[in-house]
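Input (tRNA-cytidine(32) 2-sulfurtransferase):
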Amino acid sequence: MQDAVTFDPDVDALETQALETDASESEALLDAKAKREFNKLQKRLRRQVGKAIIDYGMINEGDRVMVCLSGGKDSYTMLEILRSLQRNAPVDFSLVAVNLDQKQPGFPEHVLPEYLERIGVEYHILERDTYSVVMEKTPEGKTTCALCSRLRRGSLYGFAEQIGATKVALGHHREDILETLFLNMFFGGSLKAMPPKLLSDDGKNILIRPLAYCREADIAEFSRLMDFPIIPCNLCGSQPNLQRQVVKEMLVEWDKKFPGRLENMFKAVTNVAPSQLADRELFDFVGLEEKQARQRAARIDIQQER
Ligand code: SF4
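Output:
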């Protein structure tokens, strides 16, 4: 009996120890799995950003890239991936992060400077009270985002010139591009989206979108795992653009129901056949007879040479 009494606690201790070992082993396994998943995700984003940069000649030797940082998941991810690519890039380029403080009530001014100091990136905080202008100029009941974005772009592009930035990097991703394509078709009567690289209308800035090939879901997951200090964009109290929201939901639904559809749609944006559309500026439909005559003459020449 005595033995049993003294032995029992040891059995308990051994069992507890075994359970603890099991738990710590499975925790370690989970950790390793999570790490593997994170590495895979990071690699995929790096690969896609690197490919977009090469495909569109986005960054060249000596470029000073101004990274527009709003404090949202997309711009944090863009900065992080560009920083990691910069370390092994075949060309030498520099990065400067710029945030526009639009003077929205409640904007947490300390968040971005603290983050950027911590990671050691050169940065500027540009202060422009676009918030008051937007509130004053937008009619009651209308959404403020269009004017707000226009003013933001104007301020940022002007500042890029001031600091000698040769490229302005924006954090739009694949879904942003597809949403814009549909919005332009549905409401603008034009077949256009957001290009991965663009010369601004005044010719002063070259804009690049390094996340053009990246899925929004990957960016959201990366941002979550990196625990970026996100600043919401709706501090101004604006409703999100309703039409964009509707198109976004449509794409999310399609992605769930028809895997691969978004990939194909994005591929279509990169694979345009002007002769199969109806834009007379892009394709000379009127001159088809002349083209036919030229082709006929060329065929006859070849036959005669044989
Ligand atoms: S939600 Fe507010 S801050 Fe964001 S783009 Fe719209 S108006 Fe501007």
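The longest strand covers residues 94-101.
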